[in-house]
Amino acid sequence: GEDVEQSLFLSVREGDSSVINCTYTDSSSTYLYWYKQEPGAGLQLLTYIFSNMDMKQDQRLTVLLNKKDKHLSLRIADTQTGDSAIYFCAEAGNTPLVFGKGTRLSVIA
Amino acid sequence: KAGVTQTPRYLIKTRGQQVTLSCSPISGHRSVSWYQQTPGQGLQFLFEYFSETQRNKGNFPGRFSGRQFSNSRSEMNVSTLELGDSALYLCASSLDTSGFSTQYFGPGTRLTVL
C-alpha cells in the first residue's frame, strides 16, 4: 500500500534555512502537500505541488519534487522561532490522504 | 470565508460510554473526511463522506461510525469507548472527493477516555 516516510526531528538555528524531506511510494499521486501543526492545534495547509511540477515557491517556502525518486522536500528560508512545529507531508491520489509521521522542527534562537 | 469548525474542542469520557463529534465544513465544500491522530499511530484515515454517502472507509472497528447531513455537516460517533480511543480527531473538508481537491482541516476535538 501507500507509504510516506519522513525524518522525525530537525533542529536549526534562527535565520538559517530548514529542509524537511519526505519520500512516498504511490506513483499515481496527484498532489503532494505540506501541512503544519502547532501544539494543540489542527493541521494548517502550508503549500502543495502538483505531481507534474518540479518546484514551487511561495514566499519563504520552496517545494522540490523529484518524481523519479518519489522524493519531496520543503525548504523554509530564514527560519523563525514561530516556524517551530510539526510538519506533515501527505500524498493525494485515488485514495484518501496518506500522511507521514511528521517532522518536528525546533528552531533555536 | 469561515474555516472548518469542530465541536466540542475537548471531551472527557469513561470507558464504555459513547461520544458524538461534529464537523461543519467550509461553505460550498461537499466532502468531509475524518482522521484520528495519536502519538503512536500518527494520522489515520477514518472515513470520507460526500453528498451524504460514505465514499471511503479506513481500517477501524465498527464502533466508529459517521454520517453526513444534507447541509454537508458531518458527525462521527464512537460507541463503547476504549482507552485506546483517546486521540485528537480531525475533520477535513474539500470541494469533492477527487485527488485534485485540497483538504482543509479543522482544529480538532481532543477526546480523553478514562
Kindly summarize this structure in a few lines.
The complex is a heterodimer of chains A (109) and B (114). Chain A is mostly beta strands. In chain A, 0% of the residues lie in helices and 57% in strands.
How would you characterize the overall build of this protein?
- The complex is a heterodimer of chains A (109) and B (114).
- With 109 residues, chain A is mainly beta.
- Chain A has no helices and 11 strands.
- Chain A has strands at residues 4-6, 9-13, 18-24, 31-37, 43-50, 55-58, 61-66, 71-76, 85-92, 98-99, 103-108.
- Chain A is globular.
- With 114 residues, chain B is mainly beta.
- In chain B, 0% of the residues lie in helices and 53% in strands.
- Chain B has no helices and 11 strands.
- In chain B, strands 2, 4, 5, 6, 9, 10 and 11 form a 7-stranded mixed sheet that branches.
- Chain B is globular.
- The model of chain B has no long low-confidence stretch (mean pLDDT 94).
- Classes of the chains: A mainly beta (109), B mainly beta (114).
- The A-B interface holds A 29-31, 33, 35, 40-45, 48, 88, 92-102 and B 4, 6, 33, 35, 42-43, 45, 48, 56, 58, 90, 92, 98-100, 102-108, 110.
As a whole number of angstroms, the C-alpha radius of gyration of chain A is 13 Å
Strand content of chain B: over 45%
The largest chain-to-chain contact, stated as pair and per-chain residue counts, equals: A-B, 24 and 23 residues
Distance between the termini of chain A: 40 Å
Q: How many DSSP-defined strands of chain B?
A: 11
Biggest pleated-sheet summary of chain B: 7 strands, mixed
Oligomer: heterodimer
Overall residue-averaged pLDDT value of chain B: 94
Element layout with pairings:
The complex is a heterodimer of chains A (109) and B (114).
Chain A: E1 4-6, E2 9-13, E3 18-24, E4 31-37, E5 43-50, E6 55-58, E7 61-66, E8 71-76, E9 85-92, E10 98-99, E11 103-108
Parallel strand pairs in A: 2-11
Antiparallel strand pairs in A: 1-3, 3-8, 4-5, 4-9, 6-7, 7-8, 9-10, 9-11
Chain B: E1 5-7, E2 10-13, E3 19-24, E4 31-38, E5 42-50, E6 53-57, E7 64-68, E8 74-78, E9 87-94, E10 104-105, E11 109-113
Parallel strand pairs in B: 2-11
Antiparallel strand pairs in B: 1-3, 3-8, 4-5, 4-9, 5-6, 7-8, 9-10, 9-11
